[in-house]
Specification:
Blueprint (H helix, E strand, L loop, with lengths): L1 H6 L10 H9 L1 H31 L3 E2 L1 H29 L6 H24 L6 E2 L25 H12 L5 E5 L6 H14 L5 E8 L4 H12 L8 H14 L4 E8 L5 H4 L11 E6 L2 H6 L4 E4 L5 H12 L9 H10 L4 H11 L4 H12 L11 H12 L4 H10 L8 E2 H10 L9 H17 L4 E2 L5 E3 L2 H10 L3 E4 L13 E5 L17 E5 L22 E5 L2 E4 L12 E5 L2 E4 L11 E3 L20 E3 L22 E3 L33 E6 L17 E7 L8 H4 L12 E5 L3 H6 L1 H9 L2 E5 L7 H5 L9 E5 L6 E4 L15 E5 L6 E4 L22 E5 L8 E2 H4 L7 E5 L8 E2 L5 H5 L8 E5 L24 E2 L22 E2 L11 E3 L12 E5 L6 E4 L14 E2 L5 E5 L6 E4 L6 E2 L5 E5 L6 E4 H4 L7 E5 L6 E4 L10 E2 L5 E5 L6 E3 L4 E2 L6 E5 L6 E4 L4 H11 ...
Parallel strand pairs: 3-6, 3-7, 4-5, 5-6, 11-12, 12-13, 13-14, 14-16, 15-17, 16-18, 18-19, 19-20, 20-21, 21-22, 22-23, 23-24, 24-25, 25-27, 26-28, 27-29, 29-31, 30-32, 31-33, 33-37, 36-38, 37-40, 38-41, 39-42, 40-43, 43-45, 44-46, 45-48, 46-49, 47-50, 48-51, 49-52, 51-55, 54-56, 55-58, 56-59, ...
Antiparallel strand pairs: 1-2, 8-10, 9-10, 34-35, 53-54, 65-66
Helix pairs in contact: 2-5, 3-4, 3-5, 4-5, 6-7, 8-9, 12-14, 13-15, 14-16, 16-20, 17-19, 18-19
């Protein structure tokens, strides 16, 4: 009845077709199953997209918004489907009689959801997942203070060597450099850090200046900046945890420099893992005090002494120049140099001060140095003081001296904004004959440059800032008796004698109420940005009537004190990064000339500011909360010279209004247009600009952004337009969301366009030809042009128009064209001949172009014709992203062959191509090229051991015996990025990145390169290339192709990364591989076809080729057909190798070569001829093993030789062991690291192997070469060994010579998912692991013991694990004990043992153990390794000793397990 009631409505009519209803019922199972399949497909698709997102984020790329929305949509759908399938469907299947109505409904929903998923899958076919990031800012690098580089003194060389030696010593974690002030400690620290990094001792170097007053938050900030880590604004403890986690997760080695340490700093308080922890950093500190170095428990302290007399004199001569060689000056100069006492900072400051000075100045200087005025500065040497004081005295002007003393008002190691020196100096009237702010600014910048040249100031990494050496600052403070720098108000009775007071602290407290400071001209109170609310005393300023400069920074208060009104002489007032509600009192300061609210939170400007008739500068930059500027305020400021309103969004009133609105109109700018010299402003609509506004000053500087609302700028200079606070800037104009006609109608904009050095256009409507429609004069001043999201643009230059300027973009340096979907050509029309020759060129366009960036210009077929390209001699960077129709970068356009030889881009350094699917080459100057037959280019096939033949011959004459030719059906290759001609066009290319080019088959095709083997002509190709990155090139078969013997090039390539090139056959032919002498990093992933990394392509002996001698790391992952690094027995000299990562390479057998040297084999055959042959046995490979090892009960010792033979054909084949089927004793095993490779890995620190199914042995130690008297030491620098999911791994270490030493620095041993492994190490190996700290063994089904029973009586049994502090044993169903013998009973450092899922474990070792620090055994894993996290409560058991505890924990579990197994 229920069914019928569902089919028939109350009127008795059929409303739901019976066929459809029963159709859903009958297809219930298929609909549900189809939904499950679709759900699986959706999950797989999401995982694939997420993988690309992860990869993009790793590369700092911006994820496309539609991709993020799709992922979010998939997650929402998946969540609903999970509930639908696991709850709704599952409930309906329970019971014997399911509800048919419900089943029909579920079937219908399943079909609907499957269709929905189908649509989502279609939506997920993304051509672009992410956008390449803008060029990153220059990385923070540690540089020496001298831009000319480090000055090497003979006496300093032993110190550098001592520190570098300490860096290499694993027993030394902290090194201290001490010495007097100005001796060169910081410079030395920076130089040894640079050299250590160059020598690959560290992956990263970070530095923090500690200074006299230790500030942990500041130290953390400096370290985080250098690590590229963004710290949260939280407590010091949480920030320390962030830094700690960043350093612990990374496998990189890090050197941390603490500079200028005055008191003990605990590295762990900062977040630095140190001494005894995995991934612990090395620390280098500098201090004036040797005692501080000892307090910090430095393991090594080196002391820097003064320079020798000869070094000091030579250095002094270098500073002052040739003038000291004159007879009358020479003796005086020698005396002056001696008075500097060999102290570098004294020599530099005095030398620079006396450079090119007359004799009387030299005499006066010598007198000053011999009779210095006594100054009592603790810890400051009197010679240093007098030298710096002399340099100050010899400054040419009082203005420069005043500028120097102003710098002493800022904290130690502070980045001092030069603009502060300008505003403070103008306010105090320090500069004579200055009429405008611009003149003052230019003069101060010149003075700063001179002070830097005198070494009284230093360069800063911040824009428009300088720094001051702490010693120079101390001397400056002592000179300026009338200046005082405070960190808090002191209990002085009076400050009446001071002309300047600077108080800088994180928190200002206890402001005095009524200070009497009649001489005070400058007061600076600063406590960072937006700190807690302050209360300033009402009478704070009452006794400061002479104050000329007042700077309040980072403060918060409701209103200014009433006493502010007494400051009638105030000329400069800075209220920066403050929160202020009422600033109306400023209106009473009638002489005020400079007023800044930079970064302050202020909602409206009070009308009273309009009373400041002398105001020359008003700075409202970054006042993002400012909404209201009262009408009439700006028009009253008739003397205003500079107005800064960057990143301020005010709703200006229309210019034709009556002034009755809430805000001013831009028409008020006309009242000071005669004096205006600097303008930074945001305008929501160009219609708000007054039509008659004309800037009368031809020297005006402007940064104007006109758009209707803040736009989403995605790229480099667009996104950072208002982010920097610059006061020396280029004329810049941003126009967004307007029509070209509106721009053309504005006389002011037309005038600004002609003067602009930077123009950014976004979403401009209705214009096709940029050059003609925006500026008929050809943009004579333009340096940077960026155009985006403007659908109508078809050409940048239309040369077919008779109105086109004869000079176009004459000095343009950067051109950026983005999302111009209808752009057809950058230059349209016939390009004139000889347009780039001579001073009077017919059309000089793009001749200074340095950077070209194209993004989503989908109709663009090429960038330029070769006739234009010929003039791009300044081009440095080329970025092309998502240009769907582009086929080539440059098109030939009828050029003859000789013209091609004249093309050259001598300055091109960087090429970046992404998502250009139809690109077939850089320039297709030739037709298709057939593949070269195997005379030079072979596809080398796999070589089985039983295929080796004719090893007695002098040479393998027929290479084809071990190769396979190209199939006859292989099509010709025409899609090559660089041909033999175009590869020569950019001789200085340093970086090449190619992403997502679907049709590209070859990167470098060198066919046709002529090499004169007599040495008359040597071809050098891309000799400056350093970085090569290839990704998602689905048809790429070769990186290098048709390489002639004898070619030179690629010798500076240091980094290669190849991802998702599914048809790539191999990485490099050996003719190229042998050239890569500087290669340091190889990363190859997701390349399905690769069998070997290096492939043979000629008849040169493999033994003569050394592969990658400077390689420091290689990462190989997801290479399903990779079997080995190479087939041929090339020479490996990898002494610099630091990291090896191998992942998901199921066929990989060895990191070495698959066959052995024919030279060595011939020698072996000669020896074997003398041995009686046993017909029942075949020959085994002997001598140095290149991957394959033969295992007998006694190993592969000399006994193996006796049972080996050569067959009749002379082939070397495998030994067949009668125990072939015994899994514990296989007859042959492939070694990941064969003996010849182990010998050369002297600096290897990290090995991580995962999901490599064919690996059977990790380290082959049997055949290590050593002399009888010599103890062999191997892999001494290895610190981490991680082995995951290696199902066929049977041995980590295969027994080696008795006298072997090595592995002494291994700290972490982690093994997981190795199902064939029965033990970890033998006693002979275990005794070598003297630094082992952590053992982690999980999911290894066959492991019965961790430490194997001693196999031979002579094998040493006693093993000491002195450093092991943590052991994890999890999911080891057959583990019976740690060790079955009494040979590991001392564990002095063991703190934690975790045992989970080990039901057969009955004891640790059969003896009492010494574990003084062990508190118990855990049965849960600690999730976080951070020492700051609260410890998760875990179940900890302890029954007096370790054995008893384990017996208690697992008592009865083995029987239970056996019972469950039987069930």
């Amino acid at each position: 009845m229920k069914i019928i009631s569902h089919i028939i409505d109350t009127g008795g009519n059929l409303v739901v077709p019976i066929k459809k209803y029963f159709g859903y019922l009958s297809r219930y199972s298929s609909n549900i199953e189809n939904l499950r399949d679709q759900f699986q497909r959706l999950g797989d698709k999401r995982d694939g997209v997420q993988l690309k997102i992860g990869e993009a984020k790793q590369n700092k790329e911006a994820i496309a918004p539609e991709v993020e929305s799709w992922i979010e949509k998939v997650d929402n759908i998946s969540q609903g489907l999970q509930i639908f399938l696991e709850q709704d469907v599952k409930e309906n299947t329970m019971g014997l009689c399911p509800n048919l109505n419900t089943r029909c409904s579920l079937s219908r929903k399943a079909k609907k959801k499957a269709l929905e998923i189908d649509g989502v899958l279609r939506d997920g076919q993304f051509t672009i997942v992410s956008y390449p990031p803008p060029p990153p800012p220059p990385p923070q690098v540690i540089e020496t203070s001298s831009k000319k580089g480090f000055k090497v003194f003979e006496s300093r060389i032993p110190i550098m060597k001592e520190v570098l030696t300490a860096f290499r010593d694993d027993k030394i974690s902290m090194i201290g450099i001490c010495g007097m002030e100005g001796i060169g400690k910081t410079t030395m620290a920076k130089e040894v850090a640079k050299r250590a990094k160059d020598d690959n001792l560290f992956d990263e170097v970070v530095m923090a200046v500690v200074s006299h007053k230790k500030d942990l938050s500041k130290i953390q900030g400096q370290i985080a900046d250098m690590l590229g880590l963004e710290l949260e604004r939280e407590s010091v403890l949480r920030r320390a945890e962030q830094i700690y986690s960043r350093l612990m997760v990374s496998s990189k080695s890090v050197l941390v420099i603490f500079d200028d340490v005055w008191e003990e700093v605990n590295p762990k308080d900062v977040g630095i893992p140190y001494e005894g922890e995995l991934n612990s950093c090395k620390i280098l500190l500098t201090s004036r005090s040797e005692e501080v170095c000892n307090q910090m428990k430095s393991h090594k302290i080196v002391k820097i002494e003064v320079l020798t007399e000869e070094e000091a004199w030579n250095f002094f001569k270098e500073m002052v120049g040739n003038c000291v060689d004159t007879p009358d000056l020479h003796p005086i100069a020698e005396e002056v140099a001696k008075e500097c006492k060999g102290i570098p900072i004294a020599i530099v400051t005095v030398g620079r001060a006396l450079e090119n000075n007359r004799k009387n100045k030299w005499v006066a200087a010598l007198q000053h140095l011999k009779n210095p005025i006594s100054k009592n500065i603790p810890s400051l040497d009197s010679n240093v003081h007098s030298s710096i004081e002399l340099s100050y005295t010899l400054l040419e002007s009082d203005e420069a001296k005043s500028c120097f003393l102003l710098c002493c008002l800022f904290p130690e190691d502070y980045d001092i904004p030069i603009e502060y020196l300008v505003r403070y100096g103008v306010g105090q009237r320090l500069f004579a004959k200055i009429d405008t702010m611009a003149e003052a600014r230019n003069r101060v910048h010149v003075m700063v440059k001179d002070l830097k040249r005198s070494n009284l100031l230093l360069d800063s990494n911040e824009e428009e800032c300088v720094k001051m050496h702490d010693v120079v600052r101390d001397v400056g403070k002592s000179i300026a008796n009338e200046h005082i720098f405070l960190e808090e108000w002191t209990e002085k009775d009076t400050y009446e004698n001071y002309a300047a007071i600077s108080l800088v602290s994180r928190e200002l407290k206890n402001h005095p109420d009524d200070l009497e400071c009649p001489k005070l001209e400058l007061l600076q109170l600063s406590c960072g940005k937006y700190t807690t609310r302050q209360t300033l005393p009402t009478n704070l300023f009452k006794g400061m009537m002479g104050l000329k400069v007042l700077a309040l920074q980072g403060m918060s208060f409701p209103s200014l004190p009433q006493s502010i009104q007494v400051l009638q002489n105030l000329r400069t007032m800075l209220l920066e990064y403050c929160e202020i509600e009422d600033v109306s009192a400023i209106g009473s300061l009638g002489k005020l000339e400079m007023l800044s609210f930079l970064g302050s939170k202020i909602k409206e400007l009070p009308e009273e500011i309009g009373n400041l008739s002398h105001l020359k500068l008003l700075d409202l930059s970054k006042c993002s909360t400012l909404q209201q500027v009262p009408p009439g305020l700006l028009s009253n400021l008739t003397q205003l010279e500079e107005l800064y309103m960057g990143k301020v969004f005010v709703n200006w009133e229309p210019t034709d209004g009556k002034g009755e609105g809430a805000n001013a109109s831009l028409a008020e700018l006309t009242s000071f247009s005669h004096s205006l010299m600097a303008l930074q402003i945001h305008i929501p609509n160009i219609k708000l600009l007054p039509k008659d506004l004309h800037f009368k000053n031809q020297m005006i500087k402007f940064r104007i952004c006109a758009c209707d609302k803040p736009m989403n700028w995605r790229y480099d200079h667009l996104s950072t337009f208002w982010d920097t606070t610059q006061y020396i800037f280029k004329n810049s104009l941003v126009l967004g969301r307007f029509a070209a006609s509106e721009i053309a109608e504005s006389r002011m904009l037309c005038h600004l366009l002609q003067k602009s050095e930077i123009i950014i256009l976004k979403e401009i409507k209705d214009f096709k030809n940029i050059l003609y429609e925006l500026d008929k004069e050809g943009f004579p001043c333009l340096l940077v042009l960026s155009i985006s999201d403007s659908e109508g643009v078809e050409y940048v230059i239309d040369a077919t128009s008779h109105q086109t300027s004869r000079v176009a973009f004459p000095i343009l340096q950067s051109l950026e064209l983005m999302e111009l979907h209808n752009l057809k050509e950058i230059y349209h029309g016939q390009f004139p001949e000889k347009s780039f020759s001579g001073a009077h060129s017919q059309l000089a366009c793009f001749r200074n172009l340095r950077s070209l960036r194209l993004l989503e210009c989908n109709h663009l077929k090429n960038v330029f014709s070769l006739s234009i390209a010929r003039g791009l001699v300044q081009l440095q960077q080329l970025h092309i992203v998502s240009c769907g129709d582009m086929k080539e970068i440059f098109c030939k356009e009828g050029e003859d062959g000789k013209a091609l030889d004249r093309i050259m881009f001598p300055e091109l350094r960087y090429i970046d191509l992404s998502y250009v699917p139809r690109l077939i080459g850089f320039c297709t100057v030739e037709g298709p090229v057939d593949l070269v037959q195997p005379s030079l280019n072979h596809e080398v096939g796999r070589i089985d051991t039983d295929e080796l033949a004719t090893i007695r011959s002098e040479k393998m004459t027929n290479i084809e015996q071990i190769t396979r030719s190209f199939p006859e059906s292989t099509p010709p290759i025409s899609h090559k990025f660089f041909s033999s001609k175009t590869i020569l066009w950019q001789p200085n290319l340093q970086k090449l990145e190619v992403f997502d080019l679907e049709g590209l088959e070859v990167i470098f095709d060198l066919e046709g390169q002529e090499v004169d083997h007599d040495g008359q002509r040597i071809v050098v190709v891309l000799a400056q290339l350093k970085t090569l990155t290839l990704q998602n090139l689905s048809k790429l078969m070769y990186v290098w192709k048709n390489v002639p013997q004898g070619i030179q090039g690629f010798q500076n390539l240091t980094s290669i990364e190849i991802n998702a090139c599914y048809n790539l056959r191999y990485f490099s032919p050996h003719t190229v591989a042998k050239l890569l002498v500087e290669l340091q990093s190889i990363k190859i992933r997701w390349c399905d076809m690769i069998e070997n990394i290096v492939q043979r392509d000629g008849e040169e002996e493999a033994e003569d080729i050394i592969l990658f001698p400077k390689l420091t790391s290689f990462h190989l992952g997801f290479l399903p057909n990779l079997t080995s690094f190479c087939i041929e027995p090339y020479s490996f000299e990898w002494s610099s190798m630091n990291q090896i990562y191998l992942s998901h390479c199921p066929k990989l057998k060895t990191c070495g070569s698959e066959i052995r040297s024919t030279r060595k084999l011939k020698k072996i055959i000669g020896e074997l001829d003398l041995i009686p042959q046993e017909p029942s046995l075949e020959c085994a490979p002997l001598g140095k093993n290149y991957g394959l090892m033969v295992v007998s009960e006694q190993g592969t010792s000399k006994k193996s030789e006796e049972s080996s033979s050569v067959n009749k054909e002379g082939n070397l084949t495998k030994v067949k062991d009668p125990r072939d089927n015994d899994i514990d004793n296989p007859s042959e095993m492939w070694c990941t690291f064969p003996s010849h490779l182990i010998e050369c890995l002297k600096n290897l620190k990290t090995i991580e192997l995962s999901s490599c199914d064919s690996l059977e042995v990790i380290f082959q130690l049997e055949e290590l070469n050593f002399e009888e008297s010599h103890v062999q030491s191997v892999l001494d620098q290895l610190r981490k060994l991680n082995l995951f999911n290696l199902p066929n791994l049977m041995h980590i270490w295969k027994k080696g010579p008795e006298r072997i030493m090595g592995f002494k620095n291994l700290r972490l041993l982690e093994v997981s998912g190795c199902k064939s492994l029965t033990y970890l190490f033998s006693p002979s190996i275990a005794k070598l692991l003297v630094m082992l700290e952590e053992i982690r063994v999980t999911s290894c089904e066959k492991i019965e013991e961790i430490l194997q029973r001693a196999r031979e009586e002579k094998e040493e049994k006693e093993v000491l694990f002195h450093k092991v502090n943590s052991i994890l044993l999890r999911d080891l169903p057959n583990l019976k004990c740690f060790c079955p013998e009494t040979n590991a009973f001392e564990w002095p450092s063991l703190k934690e043992i975790t045992v989970i899922g080990c039901p057969t474990l009955s004891m640790f070792i059969p003896s009492n153990l010494k574990t003084p620090r062990l508190e118990g055994v855990y049965d849960e894993v600690q999730v976080s390794s951070s020492p700051w996290d609260e410890k998760k409560l875990r179940n900890c058991q302890w029954k007096g000793d370790l054995n008893a505890t384990i017996q208690h924990m697992f008592k009865g579990k083995e029987k239970k397990r056996d019972h469950e197994t039987q069930q």
